[in-house]
Amino acid sequence: MGRRYNRRMRPLATLVLLTPCLACAQIQPEFAYNGVGRAFPVQIKGNGKLELRLLQGGSAEVIETVPAKSGKQDLAKLFPSLWTAKRPAVLYAQLVANGKPKGPALVLRPMVNPVLSVLKPDKTVEFQKDEDNEYAGIHAWVDQDLLLETNLGNMRFRLRPDCAPNTVRNIMDLAKGGYYRDVIWHRIVPVARGNPFVIQGGDPSGTGSGGPGFAYALEDSPLPHDFGVISMARSTDPNTNGSQFFVCLSREGTARLDHKYASFGQLIEGAEVVRKTAAAPLEGERPKNPPTIRRAILVDAAPYSKP
Question: What is the CATH number of the domain that holds 268?
Answer without folding.
Answer: 2.40.100.10
